[in-house]
Amino acid sequence: MFSSQFLQIIYAAVLAIIAGIIIENIYRKYSHKSKLSKNTKLLRPKELLGKLILPNGEQLTITQHDRIFGREDFLGLIISEKLLLVGKKHFKLTLNDDGFYIADLNSKNGTQINGEEIKGKGNILLKDGDQISVAKTLKILYNEKNS
């Protein structure tokens, strides 16, 4: 007799917890929210993190912590025959605490930093003023945001 009353109390407690969870979820789903909170997204302004200066003087600004550069980024900057030497996804820039790192993405024609091939060497820390050579056809100057 005692054990059946004890089991009924446990069942009642479990059912009360489940009912509470269901009611809370329904309340959250259907409770009134202001139009502002429904329709507004907070966006952080894109901060300039660095830039790549192209031979014609144009600048590609880097506003992302990870950015892949490839053939499409350089359309119109080099002749189409040489553009084919640049990989679709040629190199990647990644921002860490101590600066931007560059890595060649196993491109067929490689990437050089200040004349040194970096293909297969992983992430290489860029310094302000480094010259990036893409597939030995396009020379780009790297600038830090502070310079």
Structural description of this entry:
The radius of gyration is 28 Å and the shape is elongated. The longest helix is centred in the N-terminal third of the chain and has 29 residues, at 2-30. The chain has three helices and ten strands, in the order ααβββαβββββββ. It has helices at residues 2-30, 35-39, 80-83; strands at residues 50-53, 59-62, 66-69, 91-96, 99-104, 111-113, 116-117, 124-125, 131-134, 138-144. β1 (50-53) and β2 (59-62) form a beta hairpin. With 147 residues, it is α+β, with helices and mostly antiparallel strands. The model has no long low-confidence stretch (mean pLDDT 86). Strands 2-1-10-9-6-7 form a six-stranded antiparallel β-sheet, with no helix packed on it. A four-stranded antiparallel β-sheet has the order 3-4-5-8, with no helix packed on it. The chain has two domains: 2-39; 50-144, Tumour Suppressor Smad4, CATH 2.60.200.20.
At a glance:
The chain is of the alpha+beta class and 147 residues long. It is 26% helix and 29% strand.
* SSE string, helices as H and strands as E: HHEEEHEEEEEEE
Kindly report how far apart the N and C termini lie: 83 Å
Quaternary structure annotation: single chain
Averaged pLDDT: 86
List how many beta strands DSSP finds.
10
